[in-house]
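Hey, quick one: can you model this chain's 3D structure?
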Amino acid sequence: MGPAPAGNLDALRTARLRARNDRMVLSTLAVFVTVLAGLTLVDSVGLGDDVLAVAAALALVLVLRNRPRVHVWSAFLIVALAYELIRGDATALVARVHVQDVIALERAIFGGQLPTEVLQTWLHPLHGPDLIAAAATVVYLLHTVLPVVVGAFLWVRDRTVYYDFVGALVLLSMAAFVTYLVLPVAPPWWAAAHGFLNGATGRPELVYLQPSAFDSLAASAGLDGRLLFGFTFGGISPDQVASFPSLHAAYPFLTFLVARRVLGRGRWAVLGYAAAVWFAVVYLGDHYVIDVVAGIAYTVVAYWIVVNWEPLMARLGTWLGRYPVGSLDRGRGT
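Sure thing. Here's the predicted structure for all 334 residues.
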């Protein structure tokens, strides 16, 4: 028999990647739910109706995930709903949040200063609107839609890269969510608001620039910025102590890693956008630099695991005595 047609080989590989992602979603989600349930029991946290509704929605997505109209978006829905489940443990997370140790580590790395303080001293105007903060806020807000837009583009452009992207997205996100539960870390703005960053004058040494920048952007469109900010960041993003690692830093870098395979020179524009996000979250006071570095590190590890999944599983199987090394395909180039 001659070689199989290229179209059949592509379909076979796509099916294998889809099956790989399905196993990855179920296993990583199981770890996340186990950790969440364990901490909920230890912290004696009650689950409200809103959390139970999110859990039911997540279960429904898992049941329907293989249906054609659900499949394309299922990974993004699972990530979003899994994050919302953290809401049920929010009070307990704040009760054991890490603040002073993280500040001390950041100061130790940067010679006694916080990079956010330095950037705001250099760039934040004493009077008038902060155009840099406004631009940084726009960049920050793109975080929510970026994975979905990238996923839709890759679904049309290259299905194999799409499956690697969403596989890494799920693995990266679940690893971050487990970290948020086990190691809740307060961002700089939270530390400043709670008196951990007061200077000699008794006032915070840094300012949370996002609310005022958001207000200016909304006012320029004739909207109530304060109302919109309270709804957006109070209702949609309930976990205020999920700073480490920074998924705002991670998702753009994951986009760059997959862009190297489909965009050619355009990948450098994606890397430039990622760098702009890293600057934005530090300047605005949303993250420490160590949060950004951790987000990048989590991304590299998650992406490497995904693109090398089959040889890794083969070696794991050999270690467990199930099948010999080489019985599965070797990993594709990254």
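One thing worth noting: The longest helix spans residues 6-42.
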